[in-house]
Amino acid sequence: MMTKKINFAAFLFFFFVFVSCQTEQQNWTHFRGSKMNGHANVESAPLHWSDTENVVWKVPVKGLGWSSPVVYDGQVWLTSAEEDGTAFFISCFDFDSGELLVEKTLFNSEEPQRIHPTNSYATPTPCIEDGRVYVHYGSFGTACVDTKNFEVIWKRNDMPCEHMQGPASSPIIYEDKLIVHLEGTEDPYVVALDKTTGEIIWKSVRPKEIYDPLQPVFRKSYQTPIVVNVDGRDLLISNSSFMCFAHDVNTGEVVWTFQYGDDSTVSQPLFYNGLVFINSGWIFEDGKPNFTRQFAVDPTGKGDVTETHQVWMYEDEVPQIPTPVIVDGKMYMVHDRGMVTCLEAMTGNVIWKEKLRGNFNSSPIYAGGNIYFINVKGFCTIIKPGDSFEKVAENDIAETVKAVPVFVGDKMLLRMEESLYLIQ
């Protein structure tokens, strides 16, 4: 009898593990994947396509937006906006057929802030979980929508931010919280909202004694944070303009800070093998943005850890916008102008460098054993990770791409300027 109980318990354990793995392969819940590390939990991924080859479906997308799709339970959600910022939309498509299931206008603006010519009014990527999708358009509004009946559960547009160049920071879900960054030219801050009601749980304003003396242009940030566990404590890693903050994610308390630079952090932090990897944003020389630095930081410190917890720093052709991806101890990063650098993640030592075709905004994604790099013209280079540059395939769809590719099952979603593709 005991043996039967043990065998049944073992069966249940492996069954739930199997179901969990299958669920992860069928969903994509945040910017850069469900674990926000640029890894797709799939066994295979498309290698060859064009605007006609291996296309399951192609649908037009209303408005303009550089946000990436999210996927849950067979639904594809994405945001867009009028090009002039007067209306903000959310759309839901059926994953298998591409059928438009719902399209809603969530917010309107009579006098929208200006944005950078390369940005859109719908650049933040939504996040999604069972029954709910959360969308964020910066100061223009944040909302929660029921994915079953498509009704708005809550929304608010009373969190101000002078973005200067438009919104770009994506929201993330952590337990009962929705975390959003509103870091503009005046009083930049981060808030944790109750994801069921939209009410503020905590708010942390960047320290005025540090940020007020800075020129307003040097206070803005467009990064998306991550949550990491350090010595049993969950920390929100937020690489803001000028310095990185590690918050206790439950209270907003600042645990440590790391100072690095000047302006406009975009690239998302990474966490690997006990280290946090953060991007400085632009470093200015002679009043002009000149280069960007990548740092590896030991996250176990307290207070100002700038001088005590830096593990390494690298500054040769570090991207300002695309986020690197780490695979098997190697960091792969593509500079905005196309140079790929492969570093040892734990040391920062260069393994190899190779120039790719075109300019890049989209972050590389590791899927099915390969890394996908898609430039802004829709040209994709697929490489095999390793100690040398090994090209696997090249593909082209001649349409602007700034979103990351999304991998679900054995298929890829690609959000273009005017279209959404499902590729197999």
Ordered list of secondary-structure elements with their pairings:
Layout: H1 2-26, E1 55-60, E2 70-72, E3 75-81, E4 87-94, E5 100-108, E6 127-129, E7 132-136, E8 142-146, E9 152-156, E10 172-174, E11 177-182, E12 189-194, E13 200-205, H2 208-211, E14 226-230, E15 233-239, E16 243-248, E17 254-259, E18 270-272, E19 275-285, E20 288-297, E21 303-304, E22 310-314, E23 325-327, E24 330-334, E25 339-344, E26 350-355, E27 365-367, E28 370-374, E29 379-383, E30 391-396, E31 406-408, E32 411-415, E33 419-423
Parallel strand pairs: 17-21
Antiparallel strand pairs: 1-33, 2-3, 3-4, 4-5, 6-7, 7-8, 8-9, 10-11, 11-12, 12-13, 14-15, 15-16, 16-17, 18-19, 19-20, 20-22, 23-24, 24-25, 25-26, 27-28, 28-29, 29-30, 31-32, 32-33
Quickly describe the structure.
The protein has 424 residues and is mainly beta. The chain has helices spanning 2-26, 208-211, and strands spanning 55-60, 70-72, 75-81, 87-94, 100-108, 127-129, 132-136, 142-146, 152-156, 172-174, 177-182, 189-194, 200-205, 226-230, 233-239, 243-248, 254-259, 270-272, 275-285, 288-297, 303-304, 310-314, 325-327, 330-334, 339-344, 350-355, 365-367, 370-374, 379-383, 391-396, 406-408, 411-415, 419-423.
